[in-house]
């Protein structure tokens, strides 16, 4: 359906919301507001204040481009080309995952290590800190940590050069590019270190179930960033094998995990020689991060 430019903005919101809901999209009300806001170029406040005004030809044309994308189950963040994470804005590309709120638990875990004085020779603002982010993607974890720790330096690692280009752009946009570097490689191949900690949100979905995931993930997220092998653990095995030789004595490894992987990933940490292995839970109470000290 081509949006009617003579409808008011409020009426257009209702039309878009009903179309999204009819397509089975649970977040129809929120997505409708985001789509109409993007089409008219308005802030949240402007959207309320101008609700009685007609949509207009230009906004109707833009909405006609955006709405079919969401009806096809393309994630809102991909339609808009950006996503907020840890209070910062991140550009996206086809090679990067959409950063999710659950992953903020991983950032908070690392910040707690630094601010809690768990790393020898590292100040509370990251003075003297060096860390690596494996599978950096959009750079969300790396950039969020550097933004919160102005004394730190980090290395973003990814197999995808397109993802690294996106991460570099995000580092520059958020003012931390002078304190990070990027390397195209698999896991830690060719990376020396030593680092105070290594962090990763690796691919951890079992290969056989990816196509059965919700369309927003299965059809629109990069398979390279999802596919964890037959049992979802391939990346964890590689990281646990490589990380000890790249960490300083007493250094930490922290990884995000899937909903049913806490026990198996903790065992991999133990077998790799990590101690003080702990689980950290997200806001929903699910085990989201495994962290261990070398």
TrEMBL record:
Substrate binds at residues 201-204. One of its GO terms (biological process) is methylation. S-adenosyl-L-methionine binds at residues 135-139, 158, 201. It is an enzyme of class 2 (transferase). Its EC number is 2.1.1.297. Residues 131-208 form the Methyltransferase small domain. Residues 17-81 form the Release factor glutamine methyltransferase N-terminal domain. It catalyses: L-glutaminyl-[peptide chain release factor] + S-adenosyl-L-methionine = N(5)-methyl-L-glutaminyl-[peptide chain release factor] + S-adenosyl-L-homocysteine + H(+). GO terms for molecular function: nucleic acid binding; peptide chain release factor N(5)-glutamine methyltransferase activity. It comes from Hartmannibacter diazotrophicus. This is Release factor glutamine methyltransferase. Belongs to the protein N5-glutamine methyltransferase family. PrmC subfamily. It comes from the Bacteria. Keywords: Methyltransferase, S-adenosyl-L-methionine, Transferase. The keyword Cytoplasm does not apply.
């Amino acid at each position: 359906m081509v949006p009617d430019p003579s409808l008011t903005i409020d009426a257009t919101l209702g039309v878009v919301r009903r179309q999204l809901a009819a397509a089975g999209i649970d977040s129809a009300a929120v997505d409708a507001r985001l789509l109409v806001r993007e089409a008219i170029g308005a802030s949240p406040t402007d959207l309320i204040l101008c609700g009685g005004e007609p949509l207009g030809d230009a906004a109707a044309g833009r909405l006609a481009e955006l709405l079919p994308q969401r009806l096809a189950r393309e994630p809102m963040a991909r339609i808009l080309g950006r996503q907020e994470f840890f209070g910062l804005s991140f550009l996206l590309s086809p090679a990067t995952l959409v950063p999710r709120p659950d992953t903020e638990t991983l950032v908070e875990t690392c910040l707690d290590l630094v601010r809690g004085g768990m790393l020898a020779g590292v100040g509370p603002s990251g003075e003297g800190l060096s860390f690596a982010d494996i599978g950096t993607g959009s750079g969300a974890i790396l950039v969020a940590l550097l933004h919160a720790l102005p004394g730190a330096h980090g290395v973003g690692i990814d197999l995808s050069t397109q993802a690294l280009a996106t991460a570099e752009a995000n580092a520059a946009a958020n003012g931390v590019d002078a304190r990070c570097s990027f390397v195209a490689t698999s896991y830690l191949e060719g990376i020396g270190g030593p680092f105070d900690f290594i962090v990763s949100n690796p691919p951890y979905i079992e290969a056989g179930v990816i196509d059965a995931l919700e369309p927003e993930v299965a059809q629109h997220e990069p398979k390279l960033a999802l596919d964890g092998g037959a049992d979802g653990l391939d990346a964890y095995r590689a990281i646990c094998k490589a990380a000890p030789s790249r960490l300083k004595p007493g250094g930490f490894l922290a990884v995000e995990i899937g909903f049913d992987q806490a026990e198996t990933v903790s065992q991999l940490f133990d077998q790799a020689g990590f101690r003080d292995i702990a689980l950290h839970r997200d806001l929903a109470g699910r085990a989201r991060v495994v962290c261990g000290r070398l």
